[in-house]
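Prompt: For my understanding, could you write out one protein's sequence and C-alpha coordinates?
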Amino acid sequence: MAYGEYTFEGEANLTPYFEANYSFLEVDSKGGEGQLFPTVPALNPFNLCNPNNPDGVDCGLAMGAYLDNPSIAQGIANVYGLTPAQFRDFGIVNLYPGAIGPVSTIPIVSVRGDRNRTEVEQEQIRFVAGIGGDIPFMNFGPVENWSFDAYFSYSLAKGESTRFGVREDRLEYALGYYSTTSTPCENDVGASLRADATAGCVPVNMYAPSLYPVGEVTGDFGTQAERDYLFDTRDFDTEYEQIVVSAYASGDILELPAGDVALGLGVEMRIDEIDSIPDAVAAEGLFWGFFADKGAVGDRDVKEIFAEIEIPVLANLPLATELNVNLSGRITDDEYYGTNTTESVKIGWR
Protein backbone atom coordinates (compact mmCIF):
# COMPACT_ATOMS: atom_id res chain seq x y z
CA MET A 1 0.00 0.00 0.00
CA ALA A 2 1.17 3.53 -0.72
CA TYR A 3 -0.40 6.93 -0.24
CA GLY A 4 0.80 10.44 -0.95
CA GLU A 5 -0.47 14.00 -1.13
CA TYR A 6 0.93 17.50 -1.50
CA THR A 7 -0.77 20.82 -0.74
CA PHE A 8 0.24 23.81 -2.84
CA GLU A 9 0.49 27.20 -1.27
CA GLY A 10 -2.35 29.53 -2.08
CA GLU A 11 -5.88 30.43 -1.17
CA ALA A 12 -7.35 27.32 -2.83
CA ASN A 13 -5.20 24.84 -0.84
CA LEU A 14 -5.05 22.58 -3.89
CA THR A 15 -4.03 19.08 -2.78
CA PRO A 16 -3.32 16.41 -5.38
CA TYR A 17 -3.10 12.89 -3.97
CA PHE A 18 -2.72 9.28 -4.95
CA GLU A 19 -3.36 5.84 -3.49
CA ALA A 20 -1.87 2.56 -4.68
CA ASN A 21 -2.63 -0.92 -3.40
CA TYR A 22 -1.65 -4.44 -4.34
CA SER A 23 -3.01 -7.51 -2.58
CA PHE A 24 -2.54 -11.24 -3.02
CA LEU A 25 -4.57 -13.98 -1.37
CA GLU A 26 -3.95 -17.71 -1.48
CA VAL A 27 -6.42 -20.16 0.05
CA ASP A 28 -6.37 -23.95 0.28
CA SER A 29 -9.63 -25.05 1.87
CA LYS A 30 -10.82 -28.52 2.75
CA GLY A 31 -14.21 -29.73 3.89
CA GLY A 32 -16.07 -33.00 4.11
CA GLU A 33 -16.18 -35.24 1.08
CA GLY A 34 -19.45 -35.54 -0.79
CA GLN A 35 -21.23 -38.82 -1.35
CA LEU A 36 -21.13 -40.94 -4.49
CA PHE A 37 -24.15 -43.13 -5.15
CA PRO A 38 -24.07 -44.19 -8.81
CA THR A 39 -26.26 -46.94 -10.17
CA VAL A 40 -24.12 -49.98 -10.94
CA PRO A 41 -25.65 -51.79 -13.96
CA ALA A 42 -26.99 -55.28 -13.39
CA LEU A 43 -24.40 -56.98 -15.61
CA ASN A 44 -21.44 -55.01 -14.33
CA PRO A 45 -18.68 -57.55 -13.56
CA PHE A 46 -18.14 -56.07 -10.07
CA ASN A 47 -21.83 -55.83 -9.14
CA LEU A 48 -22.46 -57.87 -5.99
CA CYS A 49 -26.01 -58.64 -7.20
CA ASN A 50 -24.72 -60.17 -10.43
CA PRO A 51 -24.49 -63.96 -9.86
CA ASN A 52 -22.26 -64.18 -12.96
CA ASN A 53 -19.65 -62.20 -11.04
CA PRO A 54 -17.26 -64.50 -9.11
CA ASP A 55 -17.93 -62.42 -5.99
CA GLY A 56 -21.62 -61.88 -6.76
CA VAL A 57 -24.78 -63.62 -5.66
CA ASP A 58 -28.40 -63.79 -6.68
CA CYS A 59 -29.68 -61.08 -4.33
CA GLY A 60 -33.19 -62.52 -4.37
CA LEU A 61 -31.93 -65.81 -2.93
CA ALA A 62 -29.54 -63.91 -0.65
CA MET A 63 -32.50 -61.98 0.75
CA GLY A 64 -34.22 -65.23 1.58
CA ALA A 65 -31.12 -66.58 3.30
CA TYR A 66 -30.83 -63.36 5.26
CA LEU A 67 -34.44 -63.59 6.44
CA ASP A 68 -33.94 -67.20 7.53
CA ASN A 69 -30.87 -66.37 9.60
CA PRO A 70 -31.99 -67.43 13.09
CA SER A 71 -31.07 -64.14 14.78
CA ILE A 72 -32.74 -62.05 12.04
CA ALA A 73 -35.85 -64.23 11.99
CA GLN A 74 -36.17 -64.08 15.77
CA GLY A 75 -35.74 -60.29 15.75
CA ILE A 76 -38.59 -59.92 13.24
CA ALA A 77 -40.75 -62.30 15.29
CA ASN A 78 -40.10 -60.25 18.42
CA VAL A 79 -41.52 -57.17 16.70
CA TYR A 80 -44.26 -58.62 14.48
CA GLY A 81 -45.14 -61.91 16.18
CA LEU A 82 -44.15 -64.18 13.29
CA THR A 83 -40.90 -65.11 11.59
CA PRO A 84 -40.62 -64.35 7.84
CA ALA A 85 -41.08 -68.07 7.08
CA GLN A 86 -44.27 -68.13 9.17
CA PHE A 87 -45.60 -65.08 7.32
CA ARG A 88 -45.01 -66.98 4.08
CA ASP A 89 -46.49 -70.26 5.34
CA PHE A 90 -49.66 -68.52 6.53
CA GLY A 91 -49.97 -66.74 3.19
CA ILE A 92 -50.15 -63.36 4.89
CA VAL A 93 -47.28 -61.82 2.93
CA ASN A 94 -44.43 -63.19 0.89
CA LEU A 95 -41.15 -61.61 1.93
CA TYR A 96 -39.05 -63.95 -0.24
CA PRO A 97 -38.31 -62.61 -3.74
CA GLY A 98 -36.79 -65.87 -4.92
CA ALA A 99 -34.21 -66.09 -7.70
CA ILE A 100 -34.24 -62.78 -9.62
CA GLY A 101 -30.93 -62.91 -11.49
CA PRO A 102 -28.70 -59.87 -12.00
CA VAL A 103 -30.13 -56.56 -10.73
CA SER A 104 -28.66 -53.08 -10.60
CA THR A 105 -27.43 -51.74 -7.27
CA ILE A 106 -26.68 -48.33 -5.75
CA PRO A 107 -23.68 -48.23 -3.43
CA ILE A 108 -23.27 -45.14 -1.23
CA VAL A 109 -19.67 -44.15 -0.53
CA SER A 110 -17.43 -41.17 0.20
CA VAL A 111 -14.08 -41.05 -1.56
CA ARG A 112 -10.99 -39.39 -0.15
CA GLY A 113 -10.39 -36.00 -1.82
CA ASP A 114 -13.64 -35.95 -3.80
CA ARG A 115 -15.02 -32.38 -4.27
CA ASN A 116 -13.92 -31.29 -0.81
CA ARG A 117 -10.74 -29.36 -1.60
CA THR A 118 -10.47 -25.99 -3.33
CA GLU A 119 -7.39 -23.95 -4.15
CA VAL A 120 -7.90 -20.23 -4.80
CA GLU A 121 -5.50 -17.48 -5.80
CA GLN A 122 -6.65 -13.86 -5.96
CA GLU A 123 -4.70 -10.71 -6.71
CA GLN A 124 -5.83 -7.12 -7.06
CA ILE A 125 -4.29 -3.81 -7.96
CA ARG A 126 -5.99 -0.49 -7.29
CA PHE A 127 -4.81 3.01 -8.13
CA VAL A 128 -6.48 6.32 -7.28
CA ALA A 129 -5.41 9.78 -8.42
CA GLY A 130 -7.31 12.87 -7.36
CA ILE A 131 -7.24 16.46 -6.31
CA GLY A 132 -9.09 18.35 -3.60
CA GLY A 133 -9.16 21.87 -2.33
CA ASP A 134 -11.19 24.96 -1.56
CA ILE A 135 -13.23 27.13 -3.94
CA PRO A 136 -12.48 30.70 -2.83
CA PHE A 137 -14.51 32.40 -5.57
CA MET A 138 -17.62 30.77 -4.06
CA ASN A 139 -17.33 32.96 -0.93
CA PHE A 140 -19.91 35.74 -1.20
CA GLY A 141 -22.68 36.65 1.22
CA PRO A 142 -24.06 33.53 2.90
CA VAL A 143 -22.32 31.33 0.32
CA GLU A 144 -19.05 30.20 1.85
CA ASN A 145 -16.87 27.29 2.94
CA TRP A 146 -17.02 25.57 -0.45
CA SER A 147 -14.57 22.80 -1.22
CA PHE A 148 -14.28 20.06 -3.82
CA ASP A 149 -12.78 16.65 -4.41
CA ALA A 150 -12.35 14.85 -7.75
CA TYR A 151 -10.63 11.55 -8.42
CA PHE A 152 -10.02 8.76 -10.92
CA SER A 153 -9.88 5.16 -9.72
CA TYR A 154 -8.75 2.02 -11.54
CA SER A 155 -9.05 -1.51 -10.12
CA LEU A 156 -8.10 -4.84 -11.65
CA ALA A 157 -8.76 -8.12 -9.86
CA LYS A 158 -7.83 -11.59 -11.05
CA GLY A 159 -8.76 -14.89 -9.51
CA GLU A 160 -8.11 -18.55 -10.21
CA SER A 161 -9.92 -21.38 -8.46
CA THR A 162 -9.41 -25.12 -8.71
CA ARG A 163 -11.58 -27.83 -7.19
CA PHE A 164 -10.69 -31.53 -7.28
CA GLY A 165 -13.25 -34.28 -7.74
CA VAL A 166 -14.68 -37.31 -9.55
CA ARG A 167 -15.94 -36.87 -13.11
CA GLU A 168 -19.48 -38.23 -13.51
CA ASP A 169 -19.10 -38.98 -17.22
CA ARG A 170 -15.92 -40.96 -16.57
CA LEU A 171 -17.52 -42.90 -13.74
CA GLU A 172 -20.52 -43.80 -15.90
CA TYR A 173 -18.23 -44.94 -18.72
CA ALA A 174 -16.13 -47.01 -16.31
CA LEU A 175 -19.26 -48.72 -14.93
CA GLY A 176 -20.56 -49.74 -18.36
CA TYR A 177 -23.45 -47.27 -18.75
CA TYR A 178 -22.96 -47.09 -22.51
CA SER A 179 -22.59 -50.81 -23.15
CA THR A 180 -25.48 -53.15 -23.96
CA THR A 181 -23.71 -55.79 -21.85
CA SER A 182 -22.65 -53.35 -19.08
CA THR A 183 -19.02 -53.83 -20.07
CA PRO A 184 -16.86 -51.15 -18.46
CA CYS A 185 -15.08 -48.74 -20.83
CA GLU A 186 -17.19 -49.81 -23.81
CA ASN A 187 -19.52 -47.64 -25.90
CA ASP A 188 -21.50 -49.77 -28.32
CA VAL A 189 -24.65 -47.63 -28.20
CA GLY A 190 -23.04 -44.69 -29.98
CA ALA A 191 -23.29 -42.25 -27.07
CA SER A 192 -21.66 -38.85 -27.60
CA LEU A 193 -18.80 -38.79 -25.12
CA ARG A 194 -15.94 -36.36 -24.67
CA ALA A 195 -12.58 -37.69 -25.81
CA ASP A 196 -11.05 -36.90 -22.42
CA ALA A 197 -13.81 -38.99 -20.78
CA THR A 198 -12.93 -42.17 -22.65
CA ALA A 199 -9.16 -41.90 -22.92
CA GLY A 200 -7.34 -44.09 -20.44
CA CYS A 201 -10.55 -45.61 -19.05
CA VAL A 202 -10.10 -48.09 -16.18
CA PRO A 203 -12.91 -50.39 -14.95
CA VAL A 204 -14.00 -49.21 -11.53
CA ASN A 205 -15.05 -51.55 -8.73
CA MET A 206 -17.61 -49.71 -6.59
CA TYR A 207 -17.53 -52.63 -4.14
CA ALA A 208 -13.80 -52.68 -3.47
CA PRO A 209 -13.22 -53.23 0.29
CA SER A 210 -11.14 -50.04 0.40
CA LEU A 211 -14.32 -48.02 -0.22
CA TYR A 212 -15.87 -49.40 2.97
CA PRO A 213 -13.20 -49.11 5.69
CA VAL A 214 -14.35 -50.45 9.04
CA GLY A 215 -15.24 -47.68 11.46
CA GLU A 216 -14.71 -44.87 8.92
CA VAL A 217 -16.98 -42.85 6.66
CA THR A 218 -14.49 -42.04 3.90
CA GLY A 219 -12.76 -44.68 1.82
CA ASP A 220 -10.86 -44.82 -1.43
CA PHE A 221 -10.94 -46.57 -4.78
CA GLY A 222 -9.30 -49.96 -4.99
CA THR A 223 -6.39 -48.89 -7.22
CA GLN A 224 -4.40 -45.77 -7.98
CA ALA A 225 -5.27 -46.27 -11.66
CA GLU A 226 -8.97 -45.82 -10.84
CA ARG A 227 -8.22 -42.55 -9.00
CA ASP A 228 -6.01 -41.28 -11.80
CA TYR A 229 -8.75 -41.89 -14.36
CA LEU A 230 -11.77 -40.65 -12.39
CA PHE A 231 -10.33 -37.52 -10.78
CA ASP A 232 -10.08 -34.20 -12.59
CA THR A 233 -10.05 -30.50 -11.72
CA ARG A 234 -12.76 -27.87 -12.08
CA ASP A 235 -11.00 -24.63 -12.99
CA PHE A 236 -12.31 -21.07 -13.13
CA ASP A 237 -10.39 -17.94 -14.17
CA THR A 238 -12.00 -14.57 -13.47
CA GLU A 239 -10.82 -11.06 -14.31
CA TYR A 240 -12.75 -8.03 -13.08
CA GLU A 241 -11.92 -4.45 -14.04
CA GLN A 242 -13.50 -1.25 -12.75
CA ILE A 243 -12.98 2.41 -13.60
CA VAL A 244 -14.54 5.16 -11.48
CA VAL A 245 -14.52 8.89 -12.14
CA SER A 246 -16.08 11.01 -9.41
CA ALA A 247 -16.34 14.68 -8.48
CA TYR A 248 -18.01 16.30 -5.47
CA ALA A 249 -18.38 19.82 -4.11
CA SER A 250 -20.01 21.07 -0.92
CA GLY A 251 -20.48 24.24 1.07
CA ASP A 252 -22.92 26.60 2.79
CA ILE A 253 -25.55 28.40 0.75
CA LEU A 254 -27.82 30.12 3.30
CA GLU A 255 -27.74 31.27 6.89
CA LEU A 256 -30.77 30.53 9.11
CA PRO A 257 -31.35 31.33 12.79
CA ALA A 258 -30.58 27.70 13.67
CA GLY A 259 -27.41 27.55 11.55
CA ASP A 260 -26.08 27.34 8.01
CA VAL A 261 -27.77 25.39 5.22
CA ALA A 262 -25.23 23.06 3.60
CA LEU A 263 -25.44 21.77 0.05
CA GLY A 264 -23.51 19.00 -1.66
CA LEU A 265 -23.43 18.21 -5.41
CA GLY A 266 -21.69 15.40 -7.22
CA VAL A 267 -21.33 13.32 -10.36
CA GLU A 268 -19.91 9.84 -10.84
CA MET A 269 -19.35 7.39 -13.66
CA ARG A 270 -18.46 3.71 -13.24
CA ILE A 271 -17.41 1.22 -15.89
CA ASP A 272 -17.33 -2.47 -14.93
CA GLU A 273 -16.03 -5.33 -17.04
CA ILE A 274 -15.86 -9.01 -16.17
CA ASP A 275 -14.41 -12.06 -17.89
CA SER A 276 -15.17 -15.17 -15.87
CA ILE A 277 -14.13 -18.18 -17.92
CA PRO A 278 -14.73 -21.79 -16.80
CA ASP A 279 -13.05 -24.87 -18.16
CA ALA A 280 -15.14 -27.65 -19.69
CA VAL A 281 -15.58 -29.45 -16.36
CA ALA A 282 -17.18 -26.37 -14.80
CA ALA A 283 -19.08 -25.20 -17.89
CA GLU A 284 -20.67 -28.61 -18.52
CA GLY A 285 -21.08 -29.65 -14.88
CA LEU A 286 -18.98 -32.79 -15.34
CA PHE A 287 -18.28 -33.43 -11.66
CA TRP A 288 -20.49 -36.08 -10.10
CA GLY A 289 -23.68 -34.41 -8.84
CA PHE A 290 -22.19 -30.93 -9.38
CA PHE A 291 -23.78 -27.92 -11.06
CA ALA A 292 -22.79 -26.40 -14.40
CA ASP A 293 -21.51 -22.82 -14.48
CA LYS A 294 -21.10 -21.10 -17.85
CA GLY A 295 -19.26 -18.14 -16.36
CA ALA A 296 -19.89 -14.51 -17.23
CA VAL A 297 -18.51 -12.12 -19.83
CA GLY A 298 -19.64 -8.54 -20.27
CA ASP A 299 -19.40 -4.91 -19.29
CA ARG A 300 -21.66 -2.06 -18.25
CA ASP A 301 -21.47 1.61 -17.40
CA VAL A 302 -23.40 3.61 -14.80
CA LYS A 303 -23.67 7.40 -14.65
CA GLU A 304 -25.01 9.24 -11.59
CA ILE A 305 -25.81 12.75 -10.46
CA PHE A 306 -26.53 13.34 -6.78
CA ALA A 307 -27.29 16.17 -4.38
CA GLU A 308 -27.81 16.54 -0.65
CA ILE A 309 -28.97 19.45 1.47
CA GLU A 310 -28.88 19.77 5.27
CA ILE A 311 -31.30 22.32 6.79
CA PRO A 312 -31.07 23.29 10.47
CA VAL A 313 -34.62 24.02 11.66
CA LEU A 314 -34.19 24.56 15.41
CA ALA A 315 -31.21 24.87 17.71
CA ASN A 316 -30.49 25.47 21.41
CA LEU A 317 -34.17 25.52 22.49
CA PRO A 318 -36.02 23.61 25.21
CA LEU A 319 -36.73 20.06 23.94
CA ALA A 320 -34.84 20.89 20.73
CA THR A 321 -31.14 21.26 21.24
CA GLU A 322 -30.97 20.33 17.57
CA LEU A 323 -33.55 19.67 14.83
CA ASN A 324 -32.26 19.12 11.30
CA VAL A 325 -33.87 18.02 8.03
CA ASN A 326 -31.77 16.26 5.42
CA LEU A 327 -32.93 15.86 1.82
CA SER A 328 -30.96 13.87 -0.75
CA GLY A 329 -31.55 12.52 -4.21
CA ARG A 330 -29.72 10.62 -6.91
CA ILE A 331 -30.37 10.09 -10.63
CA THR A 332 -28.86 6.86 -11.92
CA ASP A 333 -28.50 6.03 -15.60
CA ASP A 334 -27.65 2.34 -15.92
CA GLU A 335 -26.70 0.91 -19.32
CA TYR A 336 -29.08 -2.02 -18.88
CA TYR A 337 -31.71 -0.83 -16.42
CA GLY A 338 -32.27 2.69 -17.73
CA THR A 339 -32.73 5.83 -15.66
CA ASN A 340 -34.05 5.73 -12.10
CA THR A 341 -34.15 8.05 -9.13
CA THR A 342 -33.51 7.51 -5.45
CA GLU A 343 -34.76 9.96 -2.83
CA SER A 344 -34.24 10.17 0.91
CA VAL A 345 -35.70 12.37 3.67
CA LYS A 346 -34.18 12.24 7.14
CA ILE A 347 -35.00 14.15 10.32
CA GLY A 348 -32.54 14.39 13.17
CA TRP A 349 -33.62 15.56 16.62
CA ARG A 350 -31.63 15.83 19.80
Remarks:
- The longest strand covers residues 231-256.
